[in-house]
User: Which sequence fits this backbone?
């Protein structure tokens, strides 16, 4: 590096300013740099969260701001945990979470395994496969309702064509038996590439020398797959499951546009249910208690999971 | 070339290539269908069997940008010949254009809120990440985890008090309110990603600069920032894509002046239900920029979507 730019930089800063700035200790700069971020997060995340907790002990309703809100203790929590409808919602969420994760892990890993064979054009096709997950879930979800239309929808047409059934004979988002799968299919279409990318990173992190050593020991390809590939990719795969789990537990935009929670409440996931309580029925206190329960659940499950993940990593 | 036991055989490669190609073609179909539907006439769009070959029409795009009303034969007669190409498309359906639609405004809102929040979250994220990377911040790990945990909250769960708070402050349905909100949501991503990028820049560069008489600030913006430029740029695109795609807060907190495109596009309706060519046209214009960015970003994709947890 030449001296010149440094000299220029030094002379460009007026002495007084330079001294003032120099006067700031590293510690002061650290606080100066971190404080805005922490303050903004406190104002827009933590303060509302505390407010939610407070509201959860009241019977406040946003649409009746003039009515005095009463402290009702734990009644909201009691009602939620004994409400049968909530369990229906929880089951819908569990179905959605379970199947999206299973399908995305299976397809995502398979794709990564195939792409790792490094055939010609693999980079190009990887990029093509990744496209859906970068797009707006609400906009894409809305368009999928068009693909799912009986008869005229592309999805129904293709399924009808391949299976020989009548494309106007079924409605993915109108039938109670099919709607839970309609949302699983779109979510899998959208997010499989995410799992794929993480698996691919895992596969590429395995040093070739391990396989070479296994080859010397005459381990079969099958054995190599189960004793080297899978254990080495597992921490990556678990990380992918963590991300997908948290995201799909919060799932709102895609499903609300796709089915709106219907038919009936077959696909009413927790976030959609919560939105109904809070912004359609305006039961603010009740919805706040609901929100607190959801947050504690996500946070609790995620922390347990991260501990397990770290154990696997240490191995 | 040396012989490698792990190099797949030509047959394996072909087999893998064909399978991946098939998956890629299937997965791209819905997206291709969105783009194609945008260029169909409403009757072509709902034809059975679905039309793969069709005569392209700009009716969807015209409908997307205009509001129209049905006109009687006499009115149409009295108007004379259509003045412009889009007039003539509308006239074919016995309609006249009465004004622009709101799509332009909504798109512009997406641009303002997207870029505004991206700038803020990258700016705040860079300085915070620098501090976390280089200085002894008390409770550093706890603060970093706290920043990450803000991302775990379901948007609907915090939307109630934010709605109340914004109503008090007059921020409901304003650009500023949405910019601040998206900034807060994106900060977790930008701090985590940028800390990773800054960690990779050798401390020796700054130390050399400090010895040469640079102040901390000078070392930060003359040495560290240029080195982190690529990282900052890719972080910015990830933040932009998030703000661009966000729906839950937008639909709950905006309705008029500050509404972005995602809550608006599904509400585009024509005669008897959704006007699919217009919806598809709106979606195409909205999604294509993200597709372009994705292609540009492909090297940083993994790092961005996993908050820097996976680097490769």
Assistant:
């Amino acid at each position: 590096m030449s001296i010149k730019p440094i000299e220029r930089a030094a002379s460009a800063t007026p002495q007084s300013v330079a001294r003032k700035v120099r006067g700031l200790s590293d510690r002061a700069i650290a606080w100066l740099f971190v404080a805005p971020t922490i303050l903004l997060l406190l104002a827009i995340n933590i303060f509302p969260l505390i407010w939610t907790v407070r509201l959860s002990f009241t019977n406040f309703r946003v649409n009746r701001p003039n009515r005095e809100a009463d402290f009702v203790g734990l009644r909201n929590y009691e009602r939620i945990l004994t409400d049968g409808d909530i369990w229906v919602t929880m089951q819908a969420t569990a179905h959605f979470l379970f199947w999206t994760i299973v399908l995305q892990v299976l397809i995502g890993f398979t794709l990564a395994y195939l792409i790792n064979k490094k055939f010609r054009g693999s980079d190009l096709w990887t990029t093509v496969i990744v496209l859906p997950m970068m797009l707006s879930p609400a906009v894409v979800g809305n368009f999928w309702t068009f693909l799912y239309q009986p008869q005229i929808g592309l999805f129904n047409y293709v399924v009808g064509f391949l299976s020989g059934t009548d494309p106007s004979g079924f409605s993915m988002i109108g039938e109670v038996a099919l709607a839970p799968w309609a949302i699983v299919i779109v979510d899998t279409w959208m997010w499989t590439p995410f799992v794929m990318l993480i698996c691919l990173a895992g596969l590429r992190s395995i040093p070739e020398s391990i396989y070479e050593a296994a080859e010397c020991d005459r381990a079969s390809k099958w054995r190599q797959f189960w004793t080297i590939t899978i254990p080495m990719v597992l921490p990556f795969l678990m990380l992918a499951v963590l991300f997908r789990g948290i995201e799909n537990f919060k799932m709102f935009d895609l499903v609300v546009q796709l089915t709106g929670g219907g038919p009936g409440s077959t696909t009413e996931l927790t976030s959609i249910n919560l939105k109904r309580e809070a912004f359609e029925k305006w039961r603010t206190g009740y919805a706040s208690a609901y929100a607190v329960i959801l947050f504690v659940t996500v946070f609790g499950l995620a922390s347990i999971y991260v501990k397990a993940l770290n154990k696997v990593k240490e191995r | 070339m040396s012989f490698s036991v792990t190099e797949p055989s030509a047959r394996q490669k072909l087999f893998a290539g064909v399978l991946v190609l098939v998956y890629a073609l299937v997965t791209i179909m819905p997206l291709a269908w969105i783009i194609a539907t945008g260029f169909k006439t409403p009757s072509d769009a709902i034809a059975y069997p679905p039309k793969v070959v069709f005569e392209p029409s700009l009716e969807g795009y015209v409908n997307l940008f205009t509001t129209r009303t049905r006109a009687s034969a006499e009115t149409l007669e009295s108007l004379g010949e259509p003045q412009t190409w889009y007039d003539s498309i509308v006239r074919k359906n016995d309609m006249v254009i009465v004004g622009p639609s709101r799509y332009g405004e909504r798109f512009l809102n997406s641009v303002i809120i997207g870029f505004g929040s991206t700038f803020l979250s990258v700016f705040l994220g860079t300085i915070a990440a620098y501090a976390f990377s280089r200085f002894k911040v008390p409770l550093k790990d706890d603060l970093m985890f706290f920043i990450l945990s803000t991302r775990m909250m379901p948007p609907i769960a915090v939307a109630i008090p934010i709605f109340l708070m914004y109503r008090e402050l007059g921020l409901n349905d304003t650009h500023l309110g949405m910019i601040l909100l998206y900034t807060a949501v994106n900060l977790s991503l930008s701090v985590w990603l940028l800390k990773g990028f800054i960690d990779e820049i050798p401390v020796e560069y700054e130390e050399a600069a400090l010895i040469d008489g640079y102040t901390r600030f000078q070392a930060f913006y003359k040495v560290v920032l240029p080195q982190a430029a690529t990282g900052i740029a890719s972080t910015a695109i990830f933040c932009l894509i998030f703000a661009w795609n966000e729906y839950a807060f937008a639909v709950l907190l905006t309705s008029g002046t500050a509404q972005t495109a995602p809550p608006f596009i599904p509400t585009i309706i024509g005669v008897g239900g959704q006007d699919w060519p217009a919806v598809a046209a709106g979606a195409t214009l909205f999604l294509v920029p993200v597709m372009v960015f994705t292609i540009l970003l492909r090297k940083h994709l993994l790092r961005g979507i996993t908050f820097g947890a996976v680097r490769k």
Observations:
- Residues 115 and 122 of chain A are 6 Å apart (CA to CA).
- Confidence is low (pLDDT under 50) at residues 1-21 of chain A.
